[in-house]
Design brief:
With about 220 residues, this protein is mainly beta. It is built from 1 helix and 11 strands; from the N terminus they run αβββββββββββ. It has an 8-stranded antiparallel beta barrel with strand order 1-3-4-6-7-9-10-11. A hairpin with a 5-residue loop joins β5 and β6 (about 95-115). The longest helix has 17 residues, at about 1-20. The model is unreliable at about 15-20 (pLDDT under 50).
Amino acid sequence: MKKILLLLLAVSSIALVSAQTPRFGIKAGINIANQNVKLTYMGMSADQNGDAIVGFHIGGVADIPLSPQFSFRPELLLSGKGSKFNGTDDDGNRTEAEIRPYYLEVPLNFVYRHTFPTQLQFFGGFGPSIGYGIFGKGKSGGASDDVFQDGGYKRFDFGFNVLAGLELESGLTFSINFTPGLANIYDGADVVAGASDIKFKNTNVGISIGYMFARKAQ
């Protein structure tokens, strides 16, 4: 993982050195977040998705041109993720747990854009996304606890981001992104007797509105 991060930093540095004048902007929107749990038990594996929850994201965007059609587009976001899980306790009573971790997230996207004669721009691209958990709560049965602690979630998250959107001539943007997590964020001991492995992974769909400064006609 250290080699991957160093490679990303090297690519980012090359983009900055070779770039034209960058543009900056802001964005905010809703997250439709969920988590997948994979349990390995007595040699067998089982997957379960939770129920999606609605959160939010807000932050800044940079657009660094690499050519007339391609750019490097890093973002710095506060992003809420998580899920709801339903089950039963030892007495057969229905239980529900809601988990809401919040991350500082840095998507590093490489983007293609096309400008129409009306100056409407389409953009789309992909790249890695790195997250660091800063706070969050898990709630179940009236009790609440921090999610980032020993026996809970790891703070580091890593995934792959795909995005597409439109930018108006005014600089107003509308976009959607999909970010499946690749890292296991679970840091706890196996809570099921006989389980040899438990993995939690984030997944998220974001719908955003934003504004990019210093739009130039093309």
